[in-house]
Specification:
Length: about 375
C-alpha cells in the first residue's frame, strides 16, 4: 500500500490552521476533485477521497490531537484512516456526502440531484458562474459598485421555465432522477450516482416540449448584474452572489455568481496587506537641512515633514494613509522611502556653491575622503 500523505499537506494548510481554515481548504479540494466535475477520472476520484479522509480527521478535535501526536499510526490505533473500507470508514461516495452534507449542500452544490435518498429532490440547480474583476487601488480603498454584463441561462419566457406541457415519469430513471453505476475500486465497491441525462434529475419529462427552449425551460441570454465591492478586498478573494448564476433546467434554482478579485498594478504604490509603500526623490539639501515635501496618497496629497540630517533610503511612515481593513475599522499606513536626488545639469553658480561647500566639508573631521583613506591604511598595516 502506498504511503499516506500528511493530512495537512493534502488540504494545503499549516498545522496551526483553525477549524474555519481547514473547512475552507477542504471545500476547495472537494470542488476541484468532485466526481461530478471529473467523470471517469480515477486520479481525481482518489484525491477526492484523500481530501475527505484528511478533513474527517482534522475537523475532529480528538482525532486531530491524536494525529498531531502520533501521525497516521495514531489513526490506526483509533480505528480510522487505515482500514480497507475507504477513507475514515467511507465505503463509497454516498458515505462521504452523508458525513459532510453541510459542506456539499446535500449533494446539490455541484448541479446533481440530492444524494441522500433515492427520490429526486426536484429540478437540478443551475451551474455557478465565475468571473474575474480587476480593480484599481483607489477602488479597493473606497469600495466600488460595478455593473457586469454576462451571458447565462435564464428562465424561458415562453414556457415560464417549465420546459413544456404534459409532464410524465421519466423512462430513463423510472422517476428517480438518478442513474446509479456500481464500480469496484481500490477502496472497495463504489456507487457512482449521476443525474439522469434524460430528465436532468427531475424524474419527469414533458410530453410536449417548448419550441423556444427545446424542453430545457431555460435559454442563453445576456444579463446585467450589479456587484457591490466592499473596501479593503485583496487579490484572489472572491464574492458570491447567490442566485446570479445559470438557471437550472425545467424550473431548477439558479446557481451562484462568484466574482474573483484581481488588482491592477499601480505605477506608484506597492501594496503589502493594508499598508502601502512608495519611493520619492528628495533633494539632498532638504535631507540635510530638514523641510517638507508633498506626498501623493489615495485621498490626495499630504505634507510629510523631514527632520534635519535625514539619511537617504530612510523609511518614513504616514499613519492611517494606507488601505482600510476588510470589514474592519482600522487603516494601514503609508511608508515612504526617501531617495537623495542628484541634480544632473548644474548652472555655473550652483557648481561654484557646491565646490565651496565641498571645501568646507573637507575640513571637518571624518568628512575628508583622503583622511578616511589614510585611516584605512593605518588599520590594515
Amino acid at each position: 500500500m502506498a504511503t499516506k500523505r500528511d493530512y495537512y499537506e493534502v488540504l494545503g494548510v499549516s498545522k496551526d490552521a483553525d477549524a474555519t481554515a481547514i473547512k475552507s481548504a477542504y471545500k476547495k479540494q472537494a470542488i476541484k476533485y468532485h466526481p461530478d466535475k471529473n467523470p471517469g477520472d480515477k486520479a481525481a476520484e482518489e484525491k477526492f477521497k484523500e481530501a475527505a479522509e484528511a478533513y474527517g480527521v482534522l475537523s475532529d478535535e480528538q482525532k486531530k490531537a491524536q494525529y498531531d501526536r502520533f501521525g497516521h499510526a495514531g489513526m490506526n490505533a483509533m480505528g480510522g484512516g487505515g482500514g480497507g473500507a475507504g477513507p475514515q470508514g467511507f465505503s463509497n461516495f454516498e458515505d462521504i456526502f452523508s458525513a459532510f452534507g453541510d459542506i456539499f449542500g446535500g449533494g446539490e452544490a455541484f448541479g446533481g440531484a440530492g444524494r441522500r435518498g433515492g427520490r429526486p429532490s426536484g429540478p437540478p440547480r443551475g451551474q455557478d458562474i465565475q468571473i474575474a474583476l480587476t480593480l484599481t487601488l483607489k477602488e479597493v480603498a473606497k469600495g466600488v459598485t460595478k455593473k457586469i454584463q454576462l451571458k447565462r441561462y435564464n428562465a424561458c419566457k415562453t414556457c415560464k421555465g417549465e420546459g413544456g406541457t404534459g409532464k410524465q415519469t421519466c423512462s430513463g430513471c423510472n422517476g428517480q432522477g438518478q442513474v446509479r453505476r456500481v464500480q469496484n475500486s481500490f477502496f472497495g465497491q463504489v456507487v457512482n450516482v449521476t443525474t439522469c441525462p434524460q430528465c436532468g434529475g427531475t424524474g419527469q419529462q414533458v410530453k410536449t416540449k417548448c419550441p423556444d427552449c427545446g424542453g430545457q425551460g431555460r435559454i442563453m441570454d445576456e444579463a446585467l448584474v450589479q456587484v457591490d465591492i466592499p473596501a479593503g478586498v485583496e487579490e484572489g478573494q472572491y464574492l458570491t452572489l447567490r442566485g446570479e448564476g445559470h438557471r437550472g433546467p425545467q424550473g431548477g434554482a439558479s446557481g451562484d455568481l462568484m466574482v474573483v478579485i484581481h488588482e491592477a498594478k499601480d505605477d506608484f504604490f506597492e501594496r503589502r496587506g493594508a499598508d502601502l509603500h512608495c519611493a520619492m526623490d528628495v533633494s539632498f539639501t532638504t535631507l540635510a537641512l530638514g523641510g517638507a515635501v508633498r506626498v501623493p496618497t489615495l485621498e490626495g496629497e499630504v505634507e510629510l515633514k523631514i527632520p534635519a540630517g535625514t539619511e537617504s533610503e530612510k523609511l518614513m511612515r504616514l499613519r492611517d494613509k494606507g488601505l482600510p481593513e476588510l470589514h474592519g475599522k482600522n487603516h494601514g499606513h503609508l511608508y515612504v522611502k526617501l531617495h537623495a536626488h542628484t541634480p544632473q545639469a548644474l548652472s555655473g553658480r550652483e557648481t561654484e556653491l557646491l565646490k565651496e561647500l565641498q571645501k568646507i566639508w573637507e575640513t571637518k573631521p571624518n568628512s575628508n575622503p583622503q583622511g578616511l583613506k589614510d585611516k584605512a591604511k593605518s588599520f590594515f598595516s
